[in-house]
Amino acid sequence: MSAETVGIVSYGAYVPRYRITPEEIGRVWGSDGAAMGRGLGVHRKSVPAPDEDTITISTEALRIALRRARIDPQDLGAIYVGSESHPYAVKPTATVVAEAVGATPYLTAADFEFACKAGTAAIQTCMGLVASRMIRYGVAIGADTSQGAPGDALEYSASAGGAALVIGRERLIAEINATQSFTTDTPDFWRREGQRYPSHSGRFTGEPAFFRHVGECGRRLMEKVGTTPKDYQHVVFHQPNGKFPQRIGRALGFREDQMRWGLVTPYIGNTYSGAALIGLANVLDHAKPGDRILVVGYGSGAGSDAFDLTVTEEIGRFDRTLGTPVQEFLDNGAPISYAIYAKFRGKIRLGGEAA
Amino acid sequence: MRDVAILGVGQTRFGELWDRSFREIGIEAGLGALQEAHLTSRDLSALYLGNMASGAFIDQEHIAPLILDYAGLAGHHIPAIRVEAGSASGAMALHQAYLAVASGLHDFVVVGGAEKMTDVPDTLAQAITSATADQEWETVFGATLPALWALMARRHMQDHGTRREDLARLSVLAHAHASKNPLAQFRNPISVEAVLESTPVAEPLGVLDCAPASDGAAAVVLGPLEGARRYTDVPIRIAASEVACDTMALQHRKDITTLEATVVARQKALKRSRREISEIPLVEVHDAYSISGLMALEDLGFYPKGRAAAALRDGEGAIGSRLTVNSSGGLKAQGQPFGAVGIAQVVEVVRQLRGQAAERQVSKATVGMTHNVGGTGATAVVHVLERAN
Question: Are strands A160-168 and A292-296 parallel, antiparallel or unpaired?
């Protein structure tokens, strides 16, 4: 690929601490929540506190990343935040994050949107800027505080969380060997301007959308670099639920143990733009020098971005203990009732609000 | 009235055909049937098309000339007629076409059934299909088709001791047969336990008690029986094509464990075909729900009321048993494109009678029956088909 080797210099992930179970959601709607959870492969999902949004999640994740590699925020040349739940329709998330971490003013910043793969698109943009030496470090963030309409199937999985990757040329903990995208006009999931909740076309989100794009993109990347599934120690897919990534993984020829660390949705829900990146963060938490990683993101509308990575010796010198490991987010969390969830997510109409 | 024969059949795969349009599948089925009959478009004198709700599903009405046009036949200026009778639209279209050929008005006609249901969200599909029940007395209060069939199931359980497992057996049978049908939507065998544990839709019916909403099309070509051997080696005679109707709302019926429309259509069909029910070894029944399949076997007279469950428990219904039920996989497993199912049932029986049903062939069958229901039983259409001597 590029003449210049680029890769991941550092990473950080953040997931809000509150959790709600499918059983609790089903209890309120008179549905079999347990069966719903089993069907989706989701044990619980994260819920952001009322003072958390895509900006705070992005900031938390980036702070961890900067701390781990001891990067001076003034060396960041670009911050891109990929999300489908930017707090403002007009006014960027990325500028607030840049200000919060002390990276302003001599950098470029922008918000990305491509459903759940805006974060992986940001990685590719950073790769270009870094490889061309326009910037020293670029930050790609995928974060969301997604919502499903009350009672809709999405409500059982849509959650909150995000991860930040610092892309650079030096002190790489993982080299990006190659990237590949696969993009079509496939309307499986959307939210129009002004709509509060997204719409989805039911089972159409499966075969012609997620499975086709992730499968084709992953296969094409492996063809391009001449690898097969057995060349990888780890694989990470976009994970709208616990089942889709396992199914596509098996279809591509991966084993359960290769998917082990990359699969986080069963414990925190679908963090949308954060999902594949939090999965990658968890893999990096456990990876050893020489490990090869395949990452395939997916965004509705639709497209996939795939990355082939090799973990370097540098990861041995990298202090992963500075910042919460992903496993803690997966294991812990404060359970809440649907009532608290409804309050936190703004589903209760308060006095003084416009109708 | 002259005898009418089926000269050719055609059918698309049933399922979620997201990459194919309504007109495309309609044409595939129709041209397939014409080719089998060695007829060209010039030989046709009319086209009939059974369809329930294309306007609601794909924003397209006036679909009979649409299919005619895109099949390249617009220049012949023959009549193209859409027929609607809810989920019995397909068989009702066949009935109309049969009358036209039997009367001598038309010689060769193609009769299709088609529906494209999966381009709308599931909730909308539910609302559109439930509009085949009584809007003022039923659906306005929230009743859906599965809810209404569930009421019938509950009453059947109470009056006749039917159990959930008895209903489940219909779905198990359907999937077993569909596994041998390359055009079927669901070819995976399932167990009674899987049906019992499936997500509740309207108790006692779970999702595996219910046929899907599908895309698909089927077609047959009709012509006079006399001279039919010029077009096909094995003409299939339509020995009876009978329709009966009933009240729209369940509350206006004396007994909701039986469909009077089915009973009357069956009586007329047997009389017209000069057959006893015991002579029929092969039937395609309207199993939109497991309970509707069970009730059909009783209302068609194969078993006394309340006795079909015991027969199925003893293994009847399977290919090779005394009575083969839904060798195609039925609506449950072959798929349920509403307007197409009545024609697809006929396609299956024709293939069986010709000995072309491959892995699912019923041996030595010379006569078969089809049963197509609209809504919750306000319309029933029964056909008796036989190998012409």
Answer: unpaired
| B356 vs B349: CA distance, rounded Å | 10
Note the pLDDT tens digit of each residue in B189-241: 999 999 999 989 999 999 999 999 999 999 999 999 999 999 999 999 999 99
CB contacts, 8 Å: B122 with chain A: 202-203
What CATH number does domain A174-315 carry, 1.20.1730.10, 3.90.650.10, 3.40.47.10, 1.10.10.10? Answer: 3.40.47.10
User: Is A4 in the active site?
Assistant: no
**In 3D, which of B56, B112, B60, B50 has the Cα closest to residue B85?**
B50
The H helix count followed by the E strand count for chain A is: 13, 14
User: What is the ipTM metric for this complex?
Assistant: 0.70
**Mutation for A interface: B16, B20, B185, B196, most A CBs within 10 A:** B16
Gap between the Cα atoms of B146 and B331, Å rounded = 14
Q: Where in chain B is the domain with CATH 3.40.47.10?
A: 4-121+214-230, 126-210+239-387
Task: Kindly determine whether residue A203 and residue B121, on different chains, have CB atoms separated by under 8 Å.
Answer: no
CA distance B49 to chain A (A): 27
Query: Under an 8 A CB cutoff, do A202 and B200 touch?
Result: no
CATH architecture entry for B126-210+239-387: 3-Layer(aba) Sandwich (3.40)
